[in-house]
Specification:
The chain is mainly α and 342 residues long. The protein has 2 domains: 238 residues, no CATH class; 70 residues, no CATH class. It is built from 10 helices and 3 strands; from the N terminus they run H-H-H-H-H-H-H-H-H-E-E-E-H. It has a 3-stranded mixed sheet, covered by helices on one side. The chain is elongated and about 80 Å long. Keywords: Membrane, Transmembrane, Transmembrane helix.
Length: 342
């Protein structure tokens, strides 16, 4: 069977944000307890226990509203998935993303502050109605430090969907969400471990180091993918060869037909002649075909060696941008690491 990085011509689905937001909520709740100098275990663990739950619920709410959108703003729908009411943005993935970055940012800010208020009221419930009122005010204030932290993750999640599902760029975009989560947690724990009232500074530094190790590992994967893509030919291999041109035309025609019937391209892409490798870069619809010529002049048929779909330059640019963002996080971490140990 042909090896393929993608059997789908649809944009990638949004990344579930339950765990990223929940993990940031756990770290944020613990650091908030340090800032408030909570020495008693009950209120500390109450804050560190309720906050990640509320943050995870916030992540679930944001998952269907951020990402899962083509670069041109169209939706990540399969065949027959579009709502029939003529308003696809109502229940479609990325409905905030398609309203533009400013509107999406304002709505996300509002959701984070509301989640902070709910979190404060839930914690204040142990003190009765008065505690809920005070908790709501404190929750709104302490939600503000979560805004830049969650914004980093949401910006990464917002890019998911610009490339075809399962493609090289799509997989890199999905990894970037986890890299952003790890970087945010690592930076927060580094800063928190430097607080005079930090409850477990050594543990914070250890987890921060693990977070930056995750970022470094994901950056290494992006670097390997860049090297892999750069090895691909710039021009269609076999240009001028009738067999290569015909195969490429068939795949391109199948991709165009998929926009109407929702599935023809998958068969044209994953099928084809021979057992060659299928590589989907994710951005662009160009098709590059490499054909293996028969060893005997009068026997055998030409076979597909490799089919590459997508624009090489656009894919490299997207991967390189992700690599630079990860490298920037590592630079920030290295700078903060020295400050923490002074």
């Amino acid at each position: 069977m042909p090896r393929s990085t993608s059997d789908s011509m649809s944009p990638d689905a949004p990344v579930p944000l339950v765990f990223p937001c929940g993990a940031i909520g756990l770290v944020g709740g613990w650091i908030t307890a340090d800032v408030l100098e909570m020495d008693e275990l009950v209120p500390r663990f109450l804050l560190a226990g309720v906050t990640p739950i509320v943050a995870a619920l916030l992540g679930h709410y944001l998952t269907s509203r951020i990402g899962g959108v083509w670069g041109d703003g169209s939706m990540a729908f399969g065949a027959g998935d579009a709502p029939a009411d003529g308003l696809p943005w109502v229940d479609a993935p990325g409905k905030w993303t398609r309203r533009g970055p400013f509107v999406a940012g304002v709505l996300a800010l509002w959701a984070i502050v509301v989640a902070g208020v709910v979190n404060g009221m839930t914690i204040g419930l142990v003190a009765g109605p008065a505690g809920m009122i005070v908790g709501a005010a404190f929750g709104a204030v302490f939600a503000l430090p979560f805004v830049p932290a969650l914004a980093v993750v949401l910006i990464a999640a917002n890019r998911v969907g610009r490339a075809r599902a399962g493609s090289i760029v799509a997989l890199s975009d999905r990894r970037a969400v986890w890299a952003a989560t790890a970087a945010v947690i690592a930076v927060a724990l580094q800063l928190g471990s430097g607080l005079p009232e930090a409850a477990a500074p050594d543990l914070g530094r250890l987890v921060a180091a693990m977070g930056f190790a995750v970022v470094a590992g994901l950056c290494a994967l992006d670097a390997l993918e860049i090297a892999r893509v750069l090895k691909l030919p710039r021009e269609r291999s076999g240009a001028g060869d009738e067999v290569a041109e015909r195969i490429a035309a068939e795949i391109e025609a199948g991709a165009a037909a998929a926009e109407d019937d929702g599935g023809a391209a998958s068969a044209a892409w994953a099928g084809g002649k021979g057992t060659g490798e299928r590589i989907d870069l994710g951005l662009g619809d160009e098709v590059h075909v490499e054909v293996v010529r028969p060893t005997h002049a009068y026997r055998g048929a030409q076979q597909i060696a490799r089919v590459v779909r997508g624009n090489r330059e656009r894919a490299v640019a997207a991967l390189r941008a992700g690599l630079m963002r990860g490298a920037g996080a590592l630079v920030v971490g290295a700078a903060l690491w020295g400050e923490v140990w002074k």
